[in-house]
Write a structure and sequence with these properties.
With 143 residues, the chain is α+β, with helices and mostly antiparallel strands. It is built from 5 helices and 5 strands. Strand 2 and strand 3 form a beta hairpin. InterPro entries: Acyl_CoA_acyltransferase (IPR016181), GNAT_dom (IPR000182), NSI-like (IPR045039).
Length: 143
């Protein structure tokens, strides 16, 4: 059965999406949080294998200047199949026309994103809800 791609949030099972993020593993994201963030995102995609949600991602964008590719998740059983690459490529293509497309990667996954033209930023900075946890996970540096 071919994978089914969907580009809007109508009918999304938010509990299944939350479970996908835990399994990917990209941490705990509640169904309510996901409904909000995907609802506020200009571009999104959801990929189903039959009835099962196997991949998702979104782009938070303003329509002209800045687009932020985020929350790319692929079920472990579908990782390594090229599905994550297809999700990222779809979202980058959707965001084309913005002056800049940004993302931040799980530490160690930067080479994956270089294939799409992303380069490391020297001046990017962030404030996270839990700075200490993000320092420990390697997302932030104090130098």
């Amino acid at each position: 059965m071919p994978l089914e791609w969907k580009y809007d949030a109508e009918g999304v099972d938010w509990d299944a999406l939350s479970a996908l993020y835990r399994a990917a593993p990209l941490g705990e994201k509640s169904p309510q949080l996901l409904r909000t963030v995907f609802g506020n995102s200009m571009f999104k995609c959801f990929v189903h294998d039959g009835a099962r949600l196997v991949a998702a991602g979104r782009v938070l964008a303003d329509g002209a200047d800045c687009a932020y590719v985020c929350d790319i998740a692929v079920l472990p059983a579908h990782q390594g199949t090229g599905l994550g690459k297809q999700v990222v490529q779809h979202l980058v293509d959707a965001a084309r026309g913005h002056r800049k497309i940004l993302l931040y990667a799980v530490p160690g996954k930067e080479p994956f994103y270089r294939r799409f033209g992303f380069l490391r930023m020297k001046t990017a900075m962030a404030i996270f809800e839990n700075q200490e946890a993000q320092l420990a996970r390697g997302y932030l540096s104090e130098d």
